[in-house]
Every structure is written in C-alpha cells, then in structure tokens.
Design goal:
Blueprint: H1 3-10, H2 14-17, H3 30-59, E1 64-65, H4 75-81, E2 86-87, H5 88-96, H6 106-130, H7 142-153, E3 160-165, H8 170-182, E4 186-190, H9 192-199, E5 210-214, H10 220-234, H11 241-250, E6 254-259, H12 264-275, E7 279-282, E8 293-295, H13 299-309, E9 339-344, E10 350-356, E11 367-370, E12 381-382, E13 385-392, H14 400-405, H15 408-413, E14 418-421, E15 428-432, H16 433-437, H17 442-457, E16 463-469, H18 472-495, E17 503-507, E18 519-521, H19 534-543, E19 551-553, E20 557-559, E21 564-565, H20 566-575, E22 601-605, E23 612-616, H21 629-636, E24 645-648, E25 668-670, H22 673-678, H23 680-689, H24 695-698, H25 708-718
Parallel strand pairs: 3-4, 3-6, 4-5, 6-7, 7-8, 9-12, 10-13, 11-16, 23-25
Antiparallel strand pairs: 1-2, 9-15, 13-16, 14-15, 17-18, 17-19, 20-21, 22-23, 22-24
Helix pairs in contact: 3-5, 3-6, 3-12, 6-12, 7-10
The structure holds iron/sulfur cluster and zinc ion.
C-alpha cells in the first residue's frame, strides 16, 4: 500500500502510518493475531484523534459528522452505540472515552475490532468534511442499498464479498470477480486490490453491484453497508446492539477475502468483520476458527470456501456462456458506439413470444437459429429478430404464458454485454462488441432463456425450446402469428374486471421491509410496484401456494363504489397485524390502500382539496403540492394508510377503478409531462367515454406550473372538471 499517498489523502503524517500499515510475515497463531489487532486498533484510534483535532481547527468543533445520502449519520455509531448525530467535538470526546483493548482473549480482539471500526468511521467522515471522494468511491448511499431490494432480502442475491489486500495475478483476480458475479453476489473492494482491479480493466460501479470503497480506513464502508441492510430491511433501530447482532447472523451474509500481507489494521478490521458475522478467508497462515476465520492458499478456491463457511446458498445455477452472467449486469447499458448489432427499438422488425405447445412439438433444450448469426452481420447493423420460446408442462395454463414471457427482459439483461428493453414486438436488444468478441452468439440467448425459465418455473414448465430468427421473410411471417397471440391476450385481459372474478390476491412480498403492508391485487388494480398484476399473482400462487400471493375471497360487498368487501378487510386486518382496520380499493380518501415504498406513482390531494396531482419516480422536480417525489415518498411509505396520499402502479391510472370513489380520472389536475404523454391515448379515450373529451388539455404539467397558486389559476382558467365536484374533504 502506498503510505505516502494515504498520508496525503487523509492529511496525516506518513510516519504515523508506518506501524499500523506494516505487514510482517503475518501472525501465525491466535495470540499473535489478537496482539496485532489490538496494536493496530490502538494506533488507528490515535490517528483518528489527530485527524479530528485537525478537523476542529479547520471546520470548528460544531461541524457535524455524517455521511452523505444516509438516514443514519455514522451508521456504525448509530446501530452499535445508539449515537444518531455527532459533531467534531463529540467525536473527540467519544474517541477519548474508548477503553484500550486488551491483547489476550478473542473478546479482546473483538473489542479491538470495534474500537478500530469507530475510529475508521470517524476518519472517513472527516474526509467528507474536507472533500468528497471522487465519483462512486467511498460511502455507499442508502438508496443504492435499497435498490438491491427484494432480491437482497429473499437472498436471490445470496450475500456480499469484500475484497481486501492484493494478489500478484491480474487474470486470477478477474476470474475471482467474475465468479462472484455469476453467483449473484454483491462485491466490494478496498485497498490495493481496488487499484489492481482498475488496472485489469474490471468494471466497477454502483449500477454493477460492485462497490469500490477506497483505501486505508475506507474498508469500514463494507461494515456500515452490512449494518444498514439491517436498519433498512430489518428495521433494527439505533443502539439496538443485540437485535443488530442477531440480524447480522442471518443476513446479509458476508465473506471477506483477504490476500497478501496482513497489516495490523487488517487484523483489527478482521475482528470488526467477525462482529458483523462475516467470515474471513485469507491466504495467510491463521488459526482456523469454524464459521469465522479460515486459511485458503488457492485464491480461486477462496470464494467457495467462504460460501461454505458462511452457510450461503447460491440460488443461481451457473450457465455455460462466453460472457459473465448475473444480476450485477442488469443495470448495465450497452451504448450505441459499443454495440455490435441491435434489433427492434422501432428500427427493425423484432418481437418475442412465449407460448405453450403440445408435448410432442417441444424438444427440451433445443435452440435453433434461422438466418444469419451475429458474426454474419457487420458492426453497427440493425437486424430483424424473432425470439420464439415454446414451452410444455402438463399444468401450464395459457394465463402463465405472458407471465413467463415478461421475464425474458431481465433474464437477457443479466448477461454481460446484452441489453434488453421493452416487450412483445416493441422490444429492443443490443449486443456489445465485447460480447461478440468473446464468442457470444444468438444461440446463447436461447441457452439463457432455457436455463432461467427452468430455474424459475421448473415446477410447471418441463420442456422448453427456443427458435431465434433473423431471416427477414421468416421474421415477418412469424411476427404475424405473434400479433394474433398478443391480440387474443389483450382481449382476455380487457374482459377481466374486478366484478368478473371471485378472488383477488394478496401480495405480501414487501413485508420484509414494510411489515404491515399488503397489496390487494385485482384485475383492475395492479400492485403498486407495477410488477404484479392479477394474472401474475394468480400464476405465482399456482407455482407456490404458500408464497406471497394468496387468493382472497371478496365476501360480502360493503361498498361497491369504494371497493370495500368483508373478505378484503379481513385479510388486510390480519396481514397488517391489526394495524389497518379497513381498506377501500377505489378510494383515496377513505381508508386507502397502504403504501410500502416501491410505488411507481404517487397520487396526492391538491392544496385546495379539489383535485389530485400525480407524480412518478422519474420526475425529480417540484410538484404543486409543495413536495417532490422523494419527500412525498418518505412521508407516505412504510406500510401506512395516509388518506389523501397513495402510492400506485402506473397502469392503475387508466383503470376504470382509478380513485373511482372520488370521481376517477376527472380529478387529475397535474402530471409530469413525460408521464402524461406516455398515457395520452388512454387518457383521451377514457375522457371521451366519460363525457369530458378535452380533459387531457386541462391537465397541467411542469411546463405550466410547479406551485399551488399556479395550478389553482390554471384550473379556473381552463374550467377544470374537478372544480365542479365536491371537495375531497368536506
Ligand atoms: Fe407485492 Fe405490492 Fe410489494 Fe409489489 S409493491 S412486490 S405487489 S407487496
Ligand atoms: Zn413494496
């Protein structure tokens, strides 16, 4: 490690770092390891004191120490110590109050680790007072952790790997990283190996689930990452040491991979990692402690050893592909200059279709390519593309076809160098130069789909065959058939109304972080995340009867207009643990549905209580209710019922049941321009049907006004229909 560089970045004397960063041949027994940790811890606390007193001189004792974009100030102090805010002076007295750790027992080691992590957190926080580290390096904001979302909670992302130290071998390191990604693990790297990863062209970044932490004490960000998962997904509160510790034993499951010389600081961090129930796998000779510390000399085996030691179950089966594959690549975009070929996106004829066929016409595992493959095209070509997936399973019902088909999107996006957007015949696919260079061909698209559909739907789908077509005439021919199928599906969905079915479905998927929240999913109102409609919930219930989507018999009607039934009330009461008494499916004002945090759009009552404003996640500007999406989201989320405010899925906007109790779509006075335009056709159609043909023109957007007065003026000027309705609160 470059001591001089660290001394410069952290504003300390290089000589004061010599000992804490010194790496001898490495401790060989438990006593030596504890002694190293204890010494390292004492020194890092001393360094922290110096840094804090320098900070006092520069920024004053009252300057607040907190990381950016987090609700938890300094997260380790928050959870382990119950300190919710701390100033520079506060940090100084906190550090002075720390008892030096002993150097004899494992408990001494843990105490040393704990002191070291507080000191490190304070040192890192001072850096944010001085200057924010570059780009995505350093502290990982809460939102990035939240974005990991459900896959993280249900352990589709099975855990996190922290890379520390260094290996002399670049290609080896690359293999290790790829291995983590193909298992769906989140990766974090700090210290020398971070630099090595960059040198070896390993792509890092928040959108790739690969977080670069930085040097020196920045390793502590791996710990506060784990702790914040417990706060935001496990609702562990400040100072709840025991609950935090218990939660961390379950998840997130962390493997620390340490290579090369072990410094005293590393030794202290190793104990802090143990406090967070991580396992540490190192290539140094250390005492083996089951479930905590292991030596593994073969770098390429370290991950596997760690997975076994930490009891991690990897849900992703490896697929044999020339490119890496895993959720880490879902957020990856393939830009035009790096695109070898692309299909769809209105530039060429392209579609995807999944249908059930009879037993004999589906040959399991078969992939056929009709027409030229990728290497038959030139760089930059826009190609016609048809992707046909034929499935068979004796219990596969046709309702399941579109549900599985919609998964094509993320199944393909998981491949490095493959980008997919849209669906049906409005899809858009890009394959990168690098993927083509690595040997990726169209056949691999088929392989991915077969593998992943089996993995996710194997209970009912027993045979899968994929045909990929690039021959233009053949694409057109098969596209015609696909259009027939889409049309039939749409008609079936149109015919589905809340009144035409006997059961709705619950979705309790979000209870892991909003424990009282339940979505009731009906044909005319999809889940507020937009990802679960009635057909999805039905299919999911067929696939796993004890899963999050249970059927709800509506029972007796209490109010048809508000969408209130005895059966839905019962289930909402039970699922909210008695916290929600009643729920009206079609009302914003009277016992609306609860909101977890995943809503695509927020419906909010206007200041004059005559109308509603809609705002979606993509709109970052102000709204006429005086709050931005993020502020609104913060005040209505968490599984609460907030009359006048409600999170919804986008598609519910154009449902006949959209806040029907309050007059429906005619109440909408303002929407972000982009959202409004996306729904233009549907809004116009519905408006015509309800006898307000010019409603669309009466809905304001941010180009008209962003404040309450402006909206009121606009509404009266345009004679907005909501003005002649009774106020929302009487
Ligand atoms: Fe299920 Fe609702 Fe959460 Fe979507 S928002 S996953 S429908 S509980
Ligand atoms: Zn949710």
């Amino acid at each position: 490690m470059d001591t001089k560089h660290i001394a410069l970045t952290y504003g300390v004397d290089a000589s004061s770092l010599d000992n804490v960063l010194s790496a001898d041949s490495g401790p060989t027994d438990a006593a030596a390891l504890i002694a190293a940790a204890s010494e390292g811890s004492g020194e890092i606390v001393a360094i922290a004191k110096k840094i804090v007193s320098e900070a006092k001189r520069k920024h004053g004792g009252d300057a607040e120490l907190a990381f950016p974009e987090t609700a938890y100030g300094l997260p380790l102090l928050y959870g382990w110590k119950g300190i919710t805010n701390i100033t520079v002076d506060g940090a100084a007295s906190f550090l002075n109050g720390l008892n030096a750790a002993g150097a004899a027992t494992i408990d001494d080691g843990l105490a040393a680790g704990e002191n070291a992590m507080y000191a490190a957190e304070i040192i890192e926080a001072v850096r944010y007072l001085d200057r924010r580290p570059d780009g995505e390096e350093g502290f990982i904001p809460d939102r990035i952790i939240r974005e990991l979302g459900l896959p993280f909670v249900d352990e589709t992302i099975p855990g996190a790997v922290v890379f520390l130290g260094r290996t002399g071998n670049g290609p080896e390191l690359r293999k290790m990283v790829r291995n983590c990604q193909s298992k769906g693990m989140v990766s974090l790297a700090s210290g020398d190996c971070l630099g090595q990863m960059r040198e070896n062209g390993i792509a890092l970044g928040w959108s790739r689930m690969f977080y670069p932490l930085g040097n020196f004490t920045a390793t502590v960000h791996a710990l506060n990452f784990a702790a914040r998962a417990a706060y935001s997904f496990g609702s562990v509160g400040e100072g709840e040491r025991e609950r935090l510790s218990a939660y961390l034993k379950k998840r997130p499951k962390i493997v620390v991979i340490h290579m090369g010389p072990l410094t005293k600081l590393d030794a202290a961090f190793a104990f802090a990692a143990l406090l967070h129930s991580a396992v540490v796998i190192t290539d140094r000779d250390v005492p083996n402690i089951s479930g905590a510390l292991r030596t593994c000399k073969e770098h390429l085996d370290m991950l596997q050893v760690g997975i076994e030691e930490r009891g991690i179950t990897v849900k992703l089966e490896p697929i044999d592909l020339p490119v890496a594959y895993g959720p880490a690549f879902e957020g990856e975009t393939v830009r035009r200059p790096n695109t070898y070929v692309e299909a769809g996106g209105t530039k060429s004829e392209s579609f995807e279709l999944l249908v059930k066929r009879d037993e004999r016409s589906v040959e399991d595992g078969k992939v056929t390519v009709i027409g030229k493959d990728i290497d038959g095209f030139a760089k930059g070509d826009t190609i016609p593309l048809g992707m046909l997936v034929h499935v068979y399973g004796k219990d596969v019902q046709s309702d399941l076809e579109p549900v599985i088909e919609r998964n094509i999107h993320h199944f393909l996006n998981y491949a490095e160098g493959v980008w997919h957007a849209g669906q049906r015949d409005s899809n858009w696919i890009r394959i990168s130069d690098a993927a083509k260079e690595s040997g990726f061909r169209l056949e691999h698209l088929g392989k991915i789909l077969i593998h992943k559909i089996k993995e996710a739907f194997g209970k009912v789908v027993t045979r899968i065959q994929v045909t990929i077509v690039t021959d233009p005439a053949e694409v057109s021919e098969r596209h015609k058939d696909a259009l027939e199928v889409y049309k039939a599906r749409d008609e079936r969905i149109r015919g589905l109304t809340d009144d035409s079915v006997d059961v709705f479905y619950t979705c309790t998927m979000c209870q892991s972080f909003a424990p009282d929240h339940v979505c009731i999913v009906a044909p005319e109102r999809l889940g507020l995340c937009g990802a679960i409609n009635w057909l999805d919930a039905k299919a999911s219930n067929e696939l796993s009867p004890n899963g999050p989507n249970a059927p709800v018999a509506k029972g007796s009607v209490l109010s048809a207009a508000k969408g209130e039934w005895a059966g839905t009330n019962d289930i909402v009461r039970a699922q909210s643990h008695g916290n929600v008494e009643r729920m009206c499916m079609y009302s914003l004002m009277d016992s609306p549905m609860t909101s977890c945090g995943c809503f695509e759009v927020i419906v909010a009552m206007t200041v004059d209580m005559q109308a509603v404003v809609l705002v979606d996640r993509d709109h970052t500007g102000m709204t006429p209710v005086g709050m931005k999406f993020s502020t609104l989201a913060g005040s209505i989320g968490g599984g609460r019922q907030t009359p006048g405010f409600m999170g919804i899925g986008r598609k519910y906007i154009t449902s006949d049941k959209f806040i029907a109790a309050e007059g429906g779509i005619a109440r909408i006075a303002w929407m972000p321009k982009r959202l409004k335009e996306a729904f233009a056709d549907d809004i116009k159609k519905i408006a015509a049907n309800i006898g307000i043909p010019d409603l669309y023109e009466k809905i304001a957007d941010e180009t008209v006004t962003e404040d309450a007065e402006g909206l009121i003026a606009w509404m009266s000027e345009k004679e907005h229909p909501a003005l002649s309705m009774p106020p929302l609160i009487e």
